[in-house]
Fold each of these.
Amino acid sequence: MASKIEDTQDVCIKERPIELDYRIHWNKKLGSGISGPVRLCTNKETGKMFAMKCLTDSTRSRQEAKVHFMCSGHRNIVNVVDVYANAMALPGETRPIARIFLIMELMEGGELFEKIRNHVRFTEKEAREVAKQIGVGLHHIHSFNVAHRDLKPENLLLKENTESIHVKIADFGFAKVDRGDLITPQFTPYYASPQVLEAQRYLRAQKSGKYPYLKKPYTYDKTCDLWSLGVIIYVMLCGYPPFYSEVPSKQMSHGMRRKIAAGEYDFPDKEWSKVSKQAKDCINRLLCVEPNRRMTIDEFLEHGWIQNDNIPDTVLFTPKIIADDGAFKDVMDGHAAELTNMRLASKQIRLKPIELSKNPIIMKRKAFHVANNENSKDKVKLKSNEEDEGTTVLSQQDNSQFSLLAAKALRDIIAFCLMMKPVHPNIIQESYTGDKLTGLVLDALQKTQGNQAIENAFITESWDGKKFTSSVNKSRLAKTLSEIMLQAERVSTL
């Protein structure tokens, strides 16, 4: 694909006060981009409504404005219509701060997966059409030699709230011209390519100072967007991601990294048996570990699945799987607590682990994974990883959620586990636990609501949110809860 001249005419950044031209509805927040919040605004002259993204004025913010403006003007890209540079105090602030304001077209249809979620009969043919639109938009971005680097469901928006689906790519907060020097590991874990993860590992090794021979940076290119596209199509066709963390407390576990690096994923029969071979082949060619073997955007648009007008109207499981509020929130918004920390290699990525998702498919796959590794060496490795990752480490926020009632609830569970006579050593059979242990756990969760360490302790014992789905290791559960309480007491005395 021949690239267009990369340094096209720069965006015209206006310095006149934005409020002379637009009325900003500060109380109407439309969403949060990776680099700043988005609010509703109205053009005072025409009365037309737009979306306004507010950024702190910086080289990076101006770069985002430039690249997004450069890629605008396409039917599958959210258009930037105005850019302002003003010093302004937002509501609640006492002093003005230099900011960049991006005025963008209003996407009234919301997020793509919200639409799919409410689509009673979402078919493979419709999924193919959506994938094609995303590909056409990505082709336009790549034609400027730009890597988007944050392609994910949250950044796929719909122009209108109608029956037809018109998708546009949004949020260029991490887009960058690809000069062969993409070294900063910008990624959202579920959609990260092997090369982006390797760039992160390499950068951390360099910063540690332990490897002086690592002089040149590890670089990757815009093919990372094609990997992300493959993950999106996979999720769109079944409702869950191909890669997920096996460690409850980690968003990106060692196992997940290994599977991404090796390109290890599958197509479970229940959800994939009726999906066409062409669709699976398309995913396989996008989720190819070696970037030089991965499809380019041109090859994707020429692939048989995209070109075939006779794709079957097979009804997919996707809407049913993501229809549950908890499952939908975890799949769609699990990237999320502090978006600004996602891309910083020096900070911990704070995302909700897919392992804590209510998505029944993820839970089923986890159970299958654990059962198949029960007597293997991988079991020892998994246990080691869980210990290394600190599955029972209490954060300061977790500790603040302890109370006398919460402590009593945990002690009741510990006492029950230690005093209950097992049928076999260290194992409480379901007939012994029954409603009693379930009731104790539900009571404890209610009194320690939001405490991640405690939730993880129960999830490790096959807790699905309502009950234990298999036998409980009483010694391990009692020990884990005791450690959590001990840590809470230590933190409270600091």
Amino acid sequence: MCRIQFLLAVAAVTINAAQSWDLAVTNKDQIEFYTNGTKVAQGYKFGELTALAYDAVHNMLLFVDRQNDNASIFSYHLATKKYQPLVRKRYLYENIQGLAFDPVTSKLFWTDARDRSIYWISLAPGSKNDVYGNLLIKMDDEIPRAIAVDSCRGYIYWSNTNITNPTIERARFDGSERRVMINNTNLLYMPVSIAIDQHSRRMYWADDKEGIHFSIESSDLDGKDVQVELAGQHHQPNSLALSKDTIYWIDWGSKIMWKLPKHGDRETEPKEVAMFDDETPFGIVANYKIEDQTRDVPECDKLAKLMANRTAINDTFTPVPKREGLYCLHGEVLNGKMACKCTVGYFGPRCESSVCQNYCLQGDCSVTSDGQPTCRCKDGFSGERCEVNVCENYCLNDATCRLNAETKLPQCSCLGDYEGTRCEVMKIAVTETPVKPEVPCNCTNDSNGTKASAAASSEAQSNDGIIRDSCDAWDPVRDPIMMVLGILCGALCVACAVLITKILHLKKRPRIKKRIIVNKNVTPLTARPDQCEITIENCCNMNICETPCFEPRSTIRPTLLDAKPGKEEKRNLIANMEQPDDF
């Protein structure tokens, strides 16, 4: 009897402690509660707890158990100490990083960094959901991590931790009106956690900046009026939570929980709340009152009325059967048979094998709606299973291949005498002509240029690197040679012109010919005619190949020996030709 009373007393103290907590933290396999930096209680032990969310209207915690065989998201009612699985595990390698609950619509939202998606289910009575969750937003390049809800205005906010283009975005509860609120133009690097303050209408986030730096920043709910609440070093923030006047966060680097006043100045130093020796905590939430969030905020009327009426949460939807994990690792036991109906993406007698196991060689694997594996390759790899290295055999001639940081395409660093996109072209040999050294001119006295002009022009150098000599004086070696060559060329040209003219003139002179027919006597027609044709040519027109025509000196009359050639000589020649031949 005493033992029963003792156990009841311990349970009462535990319940009261759980109801008076300030902070709740998921630490390894359990939820721990803190008041004034002291751990006052802890919940049931699970597998490996990560993300955590709090619903102040229904006094309920929502958390993720990464090692559970069948379910991934659970609810834990602080008043009744009852926990319940809400979402069936989609696949073995899912990576839920953030949770958020909207009490106005009774919708639970979460991010899956591996699947690059945001999912939701409704916890309202009578609602029908996919046991794996309903897809809200599917992303291409973004990596969603933290998520928060603005219940008064009907928005969800989430952070994208892709460091090539980090953002904080928001959308309506149905996924519409999506827009970017904060991006890298605000020096955003890796926003790991975000939280919404309904009363001050501000959004807070923790940015794990490059290297050892970090910052806690805030803005209004439209992404404007950005303020740095704290900037420091040697912190690795993970989860962020808000109370009425304080900001809390988990530091993975030092395994410490820190706090900072909301309205302090930038010189205010954070204070240590609790230190964790063995394990590294993951999620953190702060206990708050709805009245503190909705007072004097017209947009929060629905949330304020909801607190007064305290609507019910669906406690009757089909949970994940507890006995499934006894035999079927990722599926359901068929009624009356020791056989399993595997969930999408698993196979085997006990649904123990994933279709993604060892499927993607260099990338992340996800399962399609019809249970087929698909790969999202890492930078530098391609192919159906990410088995092809884009640099393989890309660069030729022993060049080095690397990925361009911006385009993510292969880029070659050529060696030796090669160039081109793939180092496939041999460089054209370029011969460099040495620049003529600048030598001062020794001008003679006969130079027409002045010393000043010669000095000024000697310093002139063309753009191609050739130094020009500016002296205009007579060169005793070069200039005479050039003059003689010029005169000779001119004389040769004149001689050629004269000879050509003479040749053309001689060709145009007429040739003088005379033909004399001599008949000795008349012969019959049948006989050969006895006649002689003699052609007398002007001797000036005869060439060396023709027989010259002349009269023998013995037949010339003495009176004509000393006479000049003329008509008398021609008559004498003809007279001799008319005499009969001597036989």
Amino acid sequence: MTTESTDTITASGNATAQSNSESKDYSKASATVRRIGDLSESSSVDDDKLFHDEFDPVYLAKSKVLSDAIQHIGMGKYQWELFVVAGFGWMADNLWPIVTSLIYPQVIMEYPPPGGHGPFIQLAQNLGLLAGAVFWSFSADIIGRRWAFNITFFISGLWGVVAGSSPNFASVAVFDALWSFGVGGNLPVDSAIFLEVLPASHQYLLTVMSIWWAFGQLLTTLIAWGLVGNYSCESADNCTKSSNMGWRYLLFTMGGISLICFLIRFAFFRLYESPKFYLSRGKDELAVEVVHKIAAKNGKTSDLSIEQLRVFDNDTDSEGYDRPATTLFQQRIEKFNLDHIRQVFGTKKLAFSSSLVILIWAIIGLAFPLYNQFIPYFLQQRGSANEPQSTYITYRNTLIIAVLGVPGALIAGLLVELRSGRKGALSLATVLTGVFLFGSTTARTSNALLGWNCAYNFTSNIMYGVLYAYTPEIFPARVRGTAIGLAASANRILGVFSPIIAMYADLTTSAPIYASGALFLASGLLVLILPYEPRGKSSL
């Protein structure tokens, strides 16, 4: 913190004014502690048990002060710009797995996989996503969010472009795993960054963020329709590189888009480290400084001072602010232990909630790719009267399906504010997603199959929009990255099994679709027994 900003935050007029200020701060502190247990009377969340039993009440009281300060600043320029650049993360999270599913039919035509195991590409992708989810999300609670926020797009963009030059099937799979390592870190980090600077009055925007997820699918399928649909082989007979350049063009294009997103994030947007991350690391002064920077970016001022946070401490010594970089690095490494994981399972009730959330993520992690990664293949193989469709029609229909995801994302933002809350919206959308998959097995024409898939994509976008908002909302910033990381890792671990199942299940039958639908139904019912409902509660 600069001398000027420190003076702005901590200066006091005289001894009398300072005494009055301290008295006021202690009064605010006392009121804040009393309010921690009832942040929202309308919420069904038992905030007192959720927080006081598992987490340091001093940290939670300070976090509430920060939340109040952010609410006072309101939604402004900084948050709206962050809505866009953080939205790139939602976009990439759907964009790159969709790329894999879109290039899959053409890659196996040009490069027949060994032993006929084409789903090895999806297996490589899911292993990369798993590694990325584990590394980036767990490190976010240790070294901060900014590193992952800026570098993940560079990794995915670079290897995406390189993959366009792949000389064989194995290299496609390897490069897929490498770009997926970058993709795997986007959502766990970006959701934490965005939520931690959102005013409570605008917290529903975390759900609306899923519009970027839908846009990622729409953008990818639109480009694929033009490139893969027009520059591809129609069959594996004499399918050469020169006659099958569409999937390569798609990789070059999507890799280039990811690099542009990296450039926008890195060069044109100044991301401030999360104030609640600083708070969780004991760096109160830096947390206050960031709040003042956000206020300035929004053209406002904040009356938050370091004294308002220090009144909660028995010892107001601000350790660690002026330590050399080597000491800070050593401190960060020492914090990389199991303490964050233990806090996620702090009591029986929280352990039950966390375990259930992780289980739901895991089940969806198997159900979604088991069907979604093979949608173009299913569409191509199940044309009118079950006759294969042309490549052009296949990608056109995939685009139509993608369009339905956009209104789904917007409706999700409305549903989470109803009395049924996040849980009601998530359960309904997940169950309907499974129902529509079962319905798709009854299709006997390409148009019928297209209709069922449009309904499936509509509800699945609602499902993911609510799921991606619910999970970070029920954890404080101190363990938010770790908690999301555990859920995302479980999602990716089960996702690894979807291509393995596909290898040994006949994709020309409805067996994978029945399995996927049943898993969605099961996860939708599990949502109903989640103990916490974060509607109306400001994040801590």
